[in-house]
Design goal:
Distance between the termini: 50 Å
Protein name: DUF3558 domain-containing protein
Strand content: 15-25%
Shape: globular
Number of strands: 6
């Protein structure tokens, strides 16, 4: 009789947890919360320019892909013009959903580790909204780059200021502001 009551309590507890958290959060390894970014609600390049004035208004969406099979997404945007004296921002975002027993956040954290080997500079980045962040070398001598992880999305941003002075700290200060505004613009609506 006592065993039957314990089983009933366990089943009831599981049912309540399932109703509150959803089945994915119960079954996935380490998934106490559901993944933040999903394939259907990630911002487009045009939406980034609509949501923030910190980046140049012209945008080109070079790639946008979601693979249901692999539960992985990719967005590549360029903001700016071909004018070499104008501000230019390149944004690459990779995000993962849950697959098998692994949460999207855990899969994306592994991607961060793989990508961050490019950054040899371990000085603090100062992005309080990011789970992890690392400076990356810029694509040229005038630019700077940053890689940051936000739950189940990995953002890589390369920034070339207008009229660059080749001062790394000036570039990084401006890039922090851009990273914050792009992060805000990416939030699911």
């Amino acid at each position: 009789m006592g065993t039957g009551i314990l089983v009933a309590v366990a089943v009831l507890t599981l049912a309540v947890a399932w109703a509150r958290l959803g089945l994915d959060a119960i079954l996935l390894d380490g998934a106490s919360t559901l993944d933040k970014y999903h394939e259907t609600d990630f911002a487009t390049c045009d939406q980034f320019t609509e949501r923030t004035s910190a980046i140049p208004p012209r945008s080109a969406e070079l790639a946008r892909n979601w693979s249901p099979k692999f539960q992985s997404g990719l967005l590549v945007c360029d903001f700016g013009s071909n004018d070499p004296t104008a501000q230019y921002v390149s944004l690459d975002v990779y995000w993962h959903g849950p697959r098998n027993t692994e949460s999207g956040a855990k899969r994306t954290a592994g991607l961060f580790t793989g990508f961050s080997f490019r950054g040899k500079d371990h000085s603090p980045v100062g992005l309080d909204f990011a789970d992890q962040a690392r400076w990356l070398p810029g694509s040229n001598r005038e630019s700077c780059g940053v890689l940051f992880l936000d739950h189940n999305a990995l953002f890589s941003i390369d920034y070339t200021p207008a009229n660059p002075d080749r001062n790394t700290q000036t570039c990084r200060t401006q890039l922090r502001t851009i990273a914050r505004t792009l992060h805000t613009a990416a939030q699911p609506r």
